[in-house]
Protein 1
Amino acid sequence: MDAASLLRGNHKKGNIILSTVSGVGTTKDELIRLFDRSIPSVDIITTKSFQVTPNPGNREPIVCSPSPGNFGNSVGLRNPGMDVILPEIKALREDGLRAILNISLSASNPEDFITLVKAFDPYADMLELNFSCPHAAAGFGASIGNDAEIASSYVEAICKAYPERKALLIIKLTPNVPDIGTIAKAVIDKGADGIAAINTVGPKLYIEPHSEKPILNNKLGGKGGASGEWVREEALSCISAIRKAIGDEPIILGMGGVTRPEDARAMIEAGADSVGIGSALSRVNPQKWEDYFNAMKRGGDVSSLLTDDLPLQYTPHTVISKEMHKDVMILTITGSMDCKAGEFVFLWIPGKGEKPFSVAVNDPLTFLIKKRGAFTEALFELEPGDEVYTRGLSGKPMVYRKSAKALLIGGGTGSAVLPLIGDMLKKDGTEMDIRVGVVERENGKEPLEDVLSTYGKVMFVADDGKPGRVLDTITAEDVAGDTACYIVGPGKMMQKAAEILSSLGVADDSIYLSMEKNTMCGIGMCGECVCGGHLPCKEGTFFTWKTLKENKAEL
């Protein structure tokens, strides 16, 4: 069934048609394929918003939670740009999709929207134009949707420039206007097929209570859109007003605060033809997403699938010491955690940003940090007595097979994870052989050398111009007998190590790799960390070589 036949008039039929929403869940090719293949209760898959040119978006933090079930966010339309994403979208369509594909587009002028519509129209069932993002740069998002005349002129220009369009044209509107119905009618009258509503409410300012500083990091002074349960009533009110203004024929994609089956039913009754689920996904284990959507469609109980225990609160700490090793620093701060291998935390400096880091030592909290960009430079500038914050734990303790022996291989700052693996295996009485690759040897001891030596035999191997030289030291004798292998480091180094170990006879399900992908939200909302259809920020960073190969994960 095509999109128009499925959706048009469904608010009268009362069917629960479910959709993902832009920016949550189905943000990457891997996740789109996962939802299409494994979650049949999702009828419509919506992409993140794409632009003509790449947009790095806002720096982290990009999400916060002032209260359970309620969120503030400020991603800032982060996307790789049209030229990068078009081949992926084309491949998705060529491989075949079960679900209706709704491609979200963002621009600051009619000409760029026309370019995007022409480019993506051959592959889309629906094209959703973002006239609504409350924390986008000037000229984007709500800058367009706030004004009926501007919004309708954009739609008119697009429809005139590209009359052969086959995909439905959907306009996503902001609720942050006095009369959303008037704006909806204006864009429908100029040729739009439907409305998507609502986008996030706001922007609002979110203050972290300990520091009394804004959490979100953007050019709006930390203001971000509000999503989650606290916007549900406003969403229902907006949808009702839109339906009254545009009549029964145009399509309405409803969204905003939908968490439980009764919310979905209320949205249909208010006039929506489909129901989008966004922020609530962060409250559900990704391995239970299929169960959740099934229950949402059929009216089942979802209470056991939802959690309010999300790692979004900050804890203040004081810097105890920092130990410099060329471009690497060992940062020790007050406090302790019970972090396990597979888990991680975010370090946050108000006004500077946050990034995820592995905990090297739990008590006192110790981190191995390499200078890579603006935020790590800010960490390097910290002095004893300065304040820094942690958020977490994110991830999940790894599941592993106990073995008599273990080979631990680390590369670069990946060695920060090795002590937690050592703690885990030491309790099992496992004999450990630890190999760490470094760019060049230090005159004195290597970072964490004293800590690692407490777990077993330790060897540091300098690259000496050949990255990954440490892998040349691995022999069949090293992995003979009942041996499991744990690899932490850059992706290509881990892949090569896994291939070597597999060729030496180590079973693929006894080779564990730490997939520490780019992680931004830490709660399974943004999808940035996806790895072979899994989300390390929710499911843990360690996966077997067998799992990664089966899921064709990119290392």
Protein 2
Amino acid sequence: MHKPWLVDKMRGVAIRATPEEKIRQKLLHVLIEELFFPREYVVVEKALTELPHLKGKRVPKRRLDILCYFLNHDQLLPLLLIECKKSGGKKQALNQVSGYNYWVGAPFVAVANQECILLKYLDRASNEMVIKEGLPSYQGLIACCK
């Protein structure tokens, strides 16, 4: 029998088991357990106005899916902004997450769906935007920021 609810381990609440939520929960597991993102540096479904680095600033009323931070000289900075989609529309979703990132300022953005994860970032050597499939480890992303 299909369960309409699942437990969000990050927020400690029961949530509807929508296709996007299933993707988000699976991705959170991969980020923390396999790619070693520190749980305390990952936020889930937050309004832009709730983000520590945007407090007090005028920002649009938007909610992001997943935002990962990194610690740089005692300051938490955005590292990776992820949008979860149930399927298809990768280019449109990359545009959407890039629009959110105008406010967030993460060096990496990604779109995750049932088929794949696309990562988008500015390659410093070529000064060109790069889109790749998959995600590197937390330490791998941080190494690119230093």
Protein 3
Amino acid sequence: MAQQDVCRPTPRRVYDIADMSPHLATGSTHIGISGWRYQGWRGSFYPPGLPRRLELQHASRIFNSIEINGTHYSLLRPSSFEQWRDATPDGFTFALKGSRFITHMLKLRGAEGALANFFAQGVLALGPKMGPILWQFAPRFAFDAERLSTFFDLLPRTTTDVAALAHEHGPRLKGRAFTEALVKQPVRHCIEIRHDSFVCPEFIALLRKHNIGLVVADTVEWPLLFDVTSDFVYCRLHGSEELYASGYGDAALDTWAKRVVRWAHGEEAEDETASSRLHGHHASPTPARKRQKRDVFVYFDNDAKVHAPYDAQALQRRVEKLHTAKK
């Protein structure tokens, strides 16, 4: 028997319809950082002496979205998600990194139980602040259409689906599962690839069939694809010269800002002129379905040399300026 709902010891807010975030594409832009707990940021991005417990609160007043990394490595507790929800302002969005156990160890096979555990750990406690789920594939994981399609069919597409799946969690979460949907809203998923075999029209068509986003990942090692496959675009900027470490200069930030605004207005980014596989291009000759607007999520993951929070702020300013000019 699957463990039933477990009541948390602290009162939970139940959000009414006025609080619900419908996640219909409105052309909103969410720009932030991948994680927020970094030693090198203390005393620079974070003011000297700021208590660690206040770092998320500080960062969430600068950015409107942050990517949670911890969910990639282990199952957390509902209290963590509740604390993060309460520390951030209304309208804030968390992206969540999917379980490494599912993507790297199971390699998407037999993932039903692991998915139930992932979604029962407390992600629903984020309420309307729960954003896209990022599934990052291992560098050696190659394109397998059948395996991907089977996995995509398992993914919950609404918070109601998440709650139902969470009820099927295993004994590992006995007494600590969170299986209540505080809001009714769609749940988005996206895929970050790291193997050249994914650079093919068949992969793009499969993502579009299942309404799964393709992560636009700027790195020095893995393919950079601009194909739009869903009603949102998810972008991770890891550093294009030195992985996780190099910063983005003015010219690069100007270019990324233009792409963000194009995506938000339902357009597509243009291919880069260089022929290297690490330069942005489209894997499929078929353009995305035309839309008036798309939501865009951008996270800087070049944290090693304290570039990420400053690059994210610089991109914010550029995007806001371009949005204003486009009105």
